[in-house]
Design brief:
Layout: E1 2-6, H1 10-21, E2 25-29, H2 33-40, H3 51-60, E3 64-67, H4 70-74, E4 79-82, H5 97-109, E5 115-118, H6 127-130
Parallel strand pairs: 1-2, 1-4, 2-3, 4-5
Helix pairs in contact: 1-3
Protein backbone atom coordinates (compact mmCIF):
# COMPACT_ATOMS: atom_id res chain seq x y z
CA UNK A 1 0.00 0.00 0.00
CA UNK A 2 1.17 3.56 -0.65
CA UNK A 3 0.96 5.87 2.36
CA UNK A 4 1.86 9.52 2.82
CA UNK A 5 2.70 11.01 6.19
CA UNK A 6 2.63 14.80 6.34
CA UNK A 7 4.92 16.04 9.10
CA UNK A 8 8.13 14.33 10.21
CA UNK A 9 8.25 15.24 13.85
CA UNK A 10 8.26 12.49 16.46
CA UNK A 11 4.75 11.19 15.68
CA UNK A 12 5.04 11.42 11.90
CA UNK A 13 8.48 9.90 11.54
CA UNK A 14 7.76 6.99 13.89
CA UNK A 15 4.43 6.37 12.15
CA UNK A 16 5.94 6.47 8.67
CA UNK A 17 8.91 4.30 9.57
CA UNK A 18 6.73 1.67 11.24
CA UNK A 19 4.34 1.53 8.28
CA UNK A 20 7.33 1.08 5.97
CA UNK A 21 8.64 -1.71 8.21
CA UNK A 22 5.29 -3.49 7.71
CA UNK A 23 5.96 -3.51 3.94
CA UNK A 24 4.15 -0.36 2.85
CA UNK A 25 5.66 2.28 0.59
CA UNK A 26 5.73 5.48 2.62
CA UNK A 27 6.43 9.03 1.52
CA UNK A 28 7.05 11.43 4.39
CA UNK A 29 6.42 15.08 3.60
CA UNK A 30 7.88 18.01 5.52
CA UNK A 31 8.32 21.72 4.75
CA UNK A 32 11.81 21.80 6.29
CA UNK A 33 14.10 21.22 3.30
CA UNK A 34 17.22 20.85 5.46
CA UNK A 35 15.57 18.19 7.60
CA UNK A 36 14.32 16.33 4.51
CA UNK A 37 17.82 16.40 2.97
CA UNK A 38 19.30 14.93 6.15
CA UNK A 39 16.69 12.16 6.31
CA UNK A 40 17.31 11.31 2.64
CA UNK A 41 20.96 10.85 3.64
CA UNK A 42 20.04 8.50 6.47
CA UNK A 43 20.25 10.99 9.35
CA UNK A 44 17.40 10.46 11.79
CA UNK A 45 16.36 13.74 13.47
CA UNK A 46 14.77 12.24 16.61
CA UNK A 47 15.88 9.87 19.33
CA UNK A 48 13.71 6.80 19.72
CA UNK A 49 15.33 3.52 20.78
CA UNK A 50 15.87 1.16 17.82
CA UNK A 51 14.04 3.41 15.35
CA UNK A 52 17.35 4.04 13.59
CA UNK A 53 17.57 0.39 12.56
CA UNK A 54 14.08 0.42 11.00
CA UNK A 55 14.69 3.86 9.46
CA UNK A 56 17.93 2.81 7.75
CA UNK A 57 16.58 -0.56 6.59
CA UNK A 58 13.48 0.93 4.98
CA UNK A 59 15.37 3.74 3.26
CA UNK A 60 17.78 1.17 1.80
CA UNK A 61 14.89 -1.03 0.67
CA UNK A 62 13.15 1.94 -0.98
CA UNK A 63 10.03 1.78 1.17
CA UNK A 64 10.67 5.05 3.02
CA UNK A 65 11.27 8.27 1.08
CA UNK A 66 11.13 11.97 1.91
CA UNK A 67 10.02 15.09 0.07
CA UNK A 68 9.11 18.72 0.61
CA UNK A 69 6.58 18.60 -2.24
CA UNK A 70 3.10 17.90 -0.86
CA UNK A 71 1.58 17.23 -4.29
CA UNK A 72 4.30 14.72 -5.14
CA UNK A 73 4.13 13.16 -1.68
CA UNK A 74 0.41 12.37 -1.85
CA UNK A 75 0.13 11.59 -5.56
CA UNK A 76 0.27 7.78 -5.25
CA UNK A 77 -0.95 7.52 -1.66
CA UNK A 78 -4.17 5.71 -0.79
CA UNK A 79 -3.96 6.94 2.79
CA UNK A 80 -2.64 10.29 4.03
CA UNK A 81 -1.75 10.75 7.68
CA UNK A 82 -1.50 14.29 9.07
CA UNK A 83 1.08 14.46 11.87
CA UNK A 84 1.44 18.19 12.25
CA UNK A 85 2.34 20.35 15.22
CA UNK A 86 -0.44 22.00 17.23
CA UNK A 87 1.48 24.23 19.65
CA UNK A 88 -0.47 25.97 22.40
CA UNK A 89 -1.57 29.52 21.69
CA UNK A 90 -1.14 32.32 24.21
CA UNK A 91 -4.55 31.51 25.68
CA UNK A 92 -3.73 27.78 25.95
CA UNK A 93 -5.84 26.74 22.96
CA UNK A 94 -4.34 24.60 20.20
CA UNK A 95 -2.81 26.54 17.32
CA UNK A 96 -4.36 24.80 14.33
CA UNK A 97 -2.73 26.80 11.52
CA UNK A 98 -0.56 23.90 10.33
CA UNK A 99 -3.36 21.33 10.32
CA UNK A 100 -5.88 23.66 8.70
CA UNK A 101 -3.29 24.92 6.21
CA UNK A 102 -2.41 21.42 5.03
CA UNK A 103 -6.10 20.43 4.97
CA UNK A 104 -6.80 23.36 2.64
CA UNK A 105 -3.85 22.44 0.40
CA UNK A 106 -5.03 18.83 0.26
CA UNK A 107 -8.49 20.00 -0.76
CA UNK A 108 -6.91 21.66 -3.79
CA UNK A 109 -4.59 18.74 -4.62
CA UNK A 110 -6.64 15.56 -4.20
CA UNK A 111 -8.15 14.40 -7.47
CA UNK A 112 -9.03 10.79 -6.62
CA UNK A 113 -10.25 8.80 -3.63
CA UNK A 114 -7.94 9.01 -0.62
CA UNK A 115 -8.41 8.45 3.08
CA UNK A 116 -7.10 11.31 5.22
CA UNK A 117 -6.37 10.51 8.86
CA UNK A 118 -5.50 13.22 11.36
CA UNK A 119 -2.96 12.13 13.99
CA UNK A 120 -2.41 15.72 15.13
CA UNK A 121 -3.83 16.75 18.48
CA UNK A 122 -6.91 18.86 17.77
CA UNK A 123 -9.96 19.84 19.80
CA UNK A 124 -13.36 18.24 19.18
CA UNK A 125 -15.20 20.02 16.36
CA UNK A 126 -12.09 20.98 14.39
CA UNK A 127 -13.37 19.30 11.22
CA UNK A 128 -16.13 21.91 11.08
CA UNK A 129 -13.49 24.64 10.75
CA UNK A 130 -12.05 23.10 7.59
CA UNK A 131 -15.23 23.63 5.53
Amino acid sequence: MNIAVVGTGYVGLVTGTCFAEMGNHVTCVDIDAEKVAKMRNGVIPINEPHLDVLFERNIKQGRLIFTTDLAEGIKNASIIFLALPTPPGEDGSADLRYVLGVAKQLGNLITDYKIVINKSTVPVGTAEKVH
